[in-house]
Amino acid sequence: MERESQRLSAADMGGLAAEFVEHAAARARLPLDYSAASLRLVDRLIDGLRRGTGGRDQVSGTLVGLGAYVGEVLVRQAGAVWVDLPPEHLLRTVFAQPVGVRMPDGRVWNPLGRTVNRFEVGAQESLQTYFLTLHGGRPTTATGRLGSAADGVPTRAV
Which helix (H) or strand (E) holds 27? Predict the structure, then answer.
């Protein structure tokens, strides 16, 4: 996955997520709708990968697709944007990825790396919990929906 992930760019990530969703829907009719709730299904998919494979190298492409999907959930639901990390940037070394997502408050998170952690470590690295506990997204409104500037809700986390 390391070699493959080094070729990734922020501009590619939405397309990679869409390709993964299209493939998953065609193959298994999975309801991947970019909602926070769909991350529970992603957790279960990774559990299946863990049981059915000999190691990370055998599923690296699938993990990249899943990681792109997780990042797109952050983009669509929490107001994040994909960013390229320059080669000399500290986070590129820490993340072991050339991309991350920047939340509205400026924090940068690593959905690709977190997806790999979920595969390697297991249930305690839940991606649904990751989303629900991330800092820096758009605040929720009184209805429980995530706010946006168009809703008059501040985009800076309080």
Answer: helix 10-28
* Model pLDDT for residues 33-49, shown as the tens digit of each residue: 999 999 999 999 999 99
The CA-to-CA distance between both ends of the chain, in Å, stands at 36
In the three-class reduction of DSSP (H, G, I as helix; E, B as strand; rest coil), residue 102 is classed as strand
pTM of the model: 0.82
Residue 120 CA to residue 122 CA, distance in Å, equals 6
Distance of CA 134 to the CA centre of its chain: 11
Give the angle 71-73-74 at the CA atoms, nearest 5°: 65
d(CA 10, CA 81): 9
Please say whether the beta carbons of 56 and 116 come within 8 A. yes
Tokens describing residue 89: 């940037």
